[in-house]
Amino acid sequence: MENQQRQAQGNPSTSTSVDGTRRNIIHGASLAAAGGLLGLAGGGAWAAGSDKPEKTEIRIGFIPLTDCASVVMASVLGLDKKYGVKFVLSKEASWAGVRDKLANGDLDAAHVLYGLLYGVQMGIGGQKKDMAVLMGLNNNGQAITLSKQLATKGAVDGASLARLMRTEKRDYTFAQTFPTGTHAMWLYYWLAANGINPMKDAKVITVPPPQMVANMRIGNMDGFCVGEPWGHRAIMDGIGITATTTQDIWRDHPEKVLGSTLEFAKANPNTCRAMMAAILEAGKWIDASLANKNRMAEVIAAKSYVNTSKDAIDQRIMGRYQNGLGKTWDDANHMKFYNDGLVNFPFLSDGMWFMTQHRRWGLLKTDPDYLAVATSVNQVQLYKDAATMTKTPIPASLLRTSKLMDGTVWDGKNPQAYAASFKVKV
Q1: How far apart are CA 110 and CA 286, in angstroms?
Q2: Who's near 242: CB < 8 A, 6+ residues apart?
Q3: How far apart are CA 268 and CA 53, in angstroms?
C-alpha cells in the first residue's frame, strides 16, 4: 500500500486521479455485477472459490449513541444470520477504547467516528495504523449544546455566544468526544464560523459521549458537541439548550462509519461483505417507517445498549426537535441510516474533508496526498459488492458536493486549497 501511495503522490492532479480511480471502480462494479449473475453473491474473487465468510463470528464494538442503531438492529432482527455471520456486540466506554481495541484485534469492527479512523491512519489520533472505512452508518443527528447558565446570559446560538465571550472575559470550556473525530470538527467549524477560534479563544476538552450530560451538570464545560440522545437528554434534564444541530452545519454530513483495520478487511473480504449487507438491510428497515423507528428506539434504549429512556431517543429520530427554550420544529434532515444508500456509500470526498479540517487546525502539519489516503482507507469496491448483494443504489460519483453553514462549498476536487482557504484556522 505504501508503494501505491508513493505512486499516487507523484501525480499532482487530484481531479485527474479521481477520474482515473472512478473509472477503475466503475469497471470493477461492472465485473461485480457480472459475477452476481454467475451466482457469486457479491462478485469478485472469493476465497477458495467460495463466498463463505472467512470468519463467522464478528466482534463489533459500539458506543451508546442513537447512531449505533443499524448495527444493533442487524443483530436483533437476525439479519446477520441471514448472511451467514453472527454479530457479537461489545458496548464500549470511550472512543479511545474503541480505537485501541480495533488496533490490537480485540474488536474486528466497530461503530466509530469517521475522523477517528483517519486520525489513526495519519498517526495523529493514536499510534499510526492502516484503517478501513467500510461504509457510512448515518448522516446528521448530532447537536451542539450550551449550558443553561450561558443561555440565561443570552448565549443561545453562535452569534450570541461570540458576543458574550467578547464582553464577559473568562476561560470558556467546550467538550468534544475525540480529538480528530466528527464532534470535534463540527464544534470547531461552528465556533470558527462565528468568529471564535477554538484553538485560541477557548479551552477544548475530550469527554466520552455518555458522560457529557453529567459533566455539564457539575459545571465542567460551557458547551459540548455529541451525538444523540445526549443533546436531547441535556434538555430533558434542564441543564442545557440546543444551540444548533449538526445538520444545520452541513446537511446530510457523514458521521459514524463501520470501521476496521485494513488488515482485517483485506484478510476477511467475504466477512466484511456479509457484515455490511446485514447493516445495510437494517438501516433500510429503520428508515422505512415511523413504526420501525419507534421499535428501534425501544430496543436501543435498553441498558445493554444506550441505557436511557425511550423518550430521549424517539423524538429526534423522528425529526421532532425542541431547543430547551420553548422553540419546537420538525426537521426533515434528522438522522438517517439509509436514504437509498446515500448514507452508506464511502464517498472519497467525505474522507478527504476530515483531513482538510485536521490540516486546518494544525493536527496535520503538512498536506497529505488527500486522494491517495482516502482511496486507501475507504473500501469502495467492498462496499459496492455489499450494495449489489442488497440491491442498494450506488451513486455515480466517488465525490459529492455540499454547501456548509458559512457558504463554503466542498466538492473534494482541490482539498489543499480548501484547507488553506479558511480565515479562522491555526
Answers
A1: 19
A2: 143, 144, 145, 231, 232, 235, 321, 322, 323, 324
A3: 7
**Model pTM score:** 0.89
Tens of pLDDT, residues 312-363 = 999 999 999 999 999 999 999 999 999 999 999 999 999 999 999 999 999 9
Closest CA to 423 of 194, 185, 187, 224: 194
Between the alpha carbon of residue 313 and those of residues 215, 234, 307, 338, 360, the distances in Å are 20, 12, 10, 18, 34
User: Using CA atoms, how far apart are residues 426 and 138, in angstroms rounded to an integer?
Assistant: 30
Bridge pairing between strands 142-147 and 223-227? antiparallel
Q: Is 1 exposed, middle or buried (0-12, 13-18, 19+ CB in 10 A)?
A: exposed
What is the C-alpha separation between 375 and 346, in angstroms, rounded?
10
Q: Per-residue pLDDT for 27 more than 80? A: no
pLDDT at 4: 34
- Full 3-state SS string of 45-61: CCHHHCCCCCCCEEEEE
All three cell numbers of 101: 481495541
- How far apart CA 158 and CA 115 sit, in angstroms, is 23
E-assigned strands of 47-147?
Answer: 57-62, 86-91, 109-113, 131-136, 142-147
Q: What are phi and psi of 109, to 5 degrees?
A: -155, 170
What residues pair up with 112 in beta bridges, in sequence order?
257
Check residue 194 and report its DSSP letter.
T
**Amino acid in position 106:** D
- The grid coordinates listed for 357 are 479540517
Cα–Cα distance between 107 and 103 in angstroms, integer?
A: 8
Which secondary-structure segment (H or E) carries 259? strand 256-261
Q: Is the dihedral of CA 346, 349, 352, 357 positive or negative?
A: negative
How far, CA to CA in Å, does 283 sit from each of 110, 299, 345?
16, 14, 13
Cα 246 from chain centre: 12
**Three cell numbers written together for 169:** 472575559
Assess contact for 84 and 54: CB atoms under 8 A: no
Q: Mean pLDDT over all residues of the chain?
A: 90
